Amino acid sequence: MFIENESINKRQEYLTYIKGVSFKVHPNKMVIGMEGKDTLDYLHRVSTNSLKSLKPLSKAVTLFTNEKGRIIDRTHVLVNEDGCFLVGNGCEKNKLFSWITRYIITEDIIPKCASNEFSLVEVLGEQSTGFLSLFLGDKFLELKDNNYITFEIDGVKNYLFKDSYNGADFSYLILSSLDSEKIIDYLNENKSFYETAIIPDSLYKSYRIENGIPKQPFEINDSINPHENGLISEVSFNKGCYIGQEVIARLDTYDKVQRVMKGFVFEKEFDVELPSKIFDYEDNEVGLVTSFTYSELFKKQIGLGIVKRKFLTEENKYFINNGNGKIELTITDLPFNYENIY
């Protein structure tokens, strides 16, 4: 009975985070400042989305891909009067900064790695929109999917923009690193009747996987293309050339996409190094598990990964091997829900 009550308490704790207002501080982020008159034209030429006509206070999402059409990073572009900020998905060895700056030759662009100057705070939970609306008042009404807003706290300028994936909506605050803790305290002190908290990493991981949100370096990396992890909507097929364009366009034109991102429900809990290979019972390598967690919401071990389309049949059974034996799994669509888990 104690174990059952403990399990109920953990589920209830999780629900308070995803149904209320939660803050997730992202320490591993990449923020790049770019100034100069050629900034947007340059980013338009080297990334997947159409950017050159953006105006100050506009926001767009674009991907940087390599020559094979595989993803370096997914970024938000926040345009200002002098250039823009790029907010990357991760900061793996400054990979995004190195990739972008390697192609700047004669352009009027001054790039700057500004990650240490800012903190990136995700605001999530079913009541987050109401909370931000109350906190920012009429200013919040200006926030759309294709722009960002600025606001000041104690004379410090901060930024807010929205994002969504698989029907999950959330917002990002870009805060001065020197004042980020003070600003989060300020938000908590002015929460009115809302319940606010910093969500633990383990529960945020559950939230991300349950909603099928790809993240670097797990489902966003240079072994995966945007057709495979559901980010193809962030590729413009009308803008002309960019790095990786030929491969991505060919995959689309000739329906040659061989892998897709899927969810997994495992028969039991386990631990394994990632990525972990998936097999069927004819010993075919079917795909890879790239993320997994125990879901307090569904009371199941679940995961994300990339699967070869040709093996996706109702008759097939799949497993991974964690060194102690075979762990069977079911492959499902995303996001997770009770219908596709039970």
Q: What is the general shape?
A: globular
Low-confidence stretches: none
Judging by the overall fold, what is the CATH architecture of the largest domain? 2-Layer Sandwich
Number of individual domains: 2
Structural class category: alpha+beta
* Count, helices: 8
Fourth CATH level, the homologous superfamily of the largest domain: Probable tRNA modification gtpase trme, domain 1
CATH topology value of the largest domain:
Gyrase A, domain 2
Topology:
Blueprint (H helix, E strand, L loop, with lengths): L1 H18 L1 E6 L3 E6 L3 H8 L12 E7 L5 E9 L3 E6 L6 H7 L8 E4 L4 E7 L3 H9 L11 E6 L2 E10 L2 E9 L3 H10 L6 E3 L2 H10 L34 H9 L5 E8 L9 E5 L4 E11 L4 E9 L9 E4 L4 E7 L5 H4 L1
Parallel strand pairs: 1-11
Antiparallel strand pairs: 1-7, 2-5, 2-6, 3-4, 4-5, 7-10, 8-9, 9-10, 12-15, 12-17, 13-14, 13-16, 14-15, 16-17
Account of the protein in words:
By secondary structure, the chain is α+β, with helices and mostly antiparallel strands. It has two domains: 21-194, Gyrase A, domain 2 (2-Layer Sandwich); 255-341, Beta Barrel (Elongation Factor Tu (Ef-tu), domain 3), CATH 2.40.30.110. Helix content is 22%, strand content 34%. It is built from eight helices and 17 strands. The protein has a six-stranded mixed sheet, sandwiched between helices. Strands 12-15-14-13-16-17 form a six-stranded antiparallel β-barrel. The protein has a five-stranded antiparallel sheet with strand order 3-4-5-2-6. The protein is globular and about 60 Å long.
